[in-house]
């Protein structure tokens, strides 16, 4: 089975639902609201005047929010529908951005540009079967000394939800609806791969990314999993036997500067 084609078709359908949702709030975005959360802003830091590559950018809200903060942005996503919507959103918002319709792996094979920052966030790595190739794309896409930031849902959520925590060659394939409030119940078959934290971090290290920080958080900025409860001023938490479950983690890394180029 062509799992990438399966997921691409599902994300094309999801995109058309997402752009109409209150969850993504395009109206608010066009009025000046940022779609970025405090975690990614704090971890990534000042991007003014920097080139930024956003891998798996969906329909570009976060990409364009980085543009509003002064970055020169490029967004990549495998869904044609998402890239089309991203280009429309950039035009409506009056923001300069480059959007590329490609999957991460093929982009890595054809891209010749290097960036100051590579960014990825929230529900990205589960769609990728091979994190070694993913990390290689990141390393190749960074300038020497360039920064990588990953803000991702914690793998522990999969475990408490009944899925595998540890890596597997074959994905879990099931029919599921999307997470926005306007989902009508229509379901699409999708394939996801489990990836442990150690797999993510080791893939980056082996690719030549020097890990500068790793953090875990008990709150999610999004109410997109079953059983979450809102905590004022914090976000959403999940309790397991009365204890907080880690819901988000962040990794900050940097491509090593070659000797003689310091």
Within CATH, the superfamily carries the name Vaccinia Virus protein VP39
Determine the number of helices (DSSP H or I, runs of at least 4 residues): 9
What structural class should be given to the helix and strand makeup?
alpha/beta
Helix content: 25-40%
- What's the rounded overall pLDDT mean? 94
Measure the end-to-end span.
47 Å
Main beta sheet: 7 strands, mixed
Order of helices and strands: HHHEHEHEHEHEHEEHEEEEEE
Tally of distinct domains: 1
The poorly predicted ranges are: none
CATH class: Alpha Beta
**What is the strand content?**
25-35%
CATH topology: Rossmann fold
Shape summary: globular
Rg calculated over all Cα atoms? 18 Å
3D architecture notes:
This protein has helices at 3-18, 26-30, 38-44, 61-68, 80-93, 104-110, 131-141, 156-160, 197-207; strands at residues 51-55, 72-77, 98-101, 115-121, 142-153, 172-176, 188-192, 209-217, 229-231, 235-237, 239-240, 243-244, 248-255. With 262 residues, it is an alpha/beta fold. It has one domain (3-255): Rossmann fold, CATH 3.40.50.150. The strands form four sheets. A seven-stranded mixed sheet has the order 3-2-1-4-5-13-8, sandwiched between helices. It has a two-stranded antiparallel sheet with strand order 6-7. It is globular, with a radius of gyration of 18 Å. The model has no long low-confidence stretch (mean pLDDT 94).
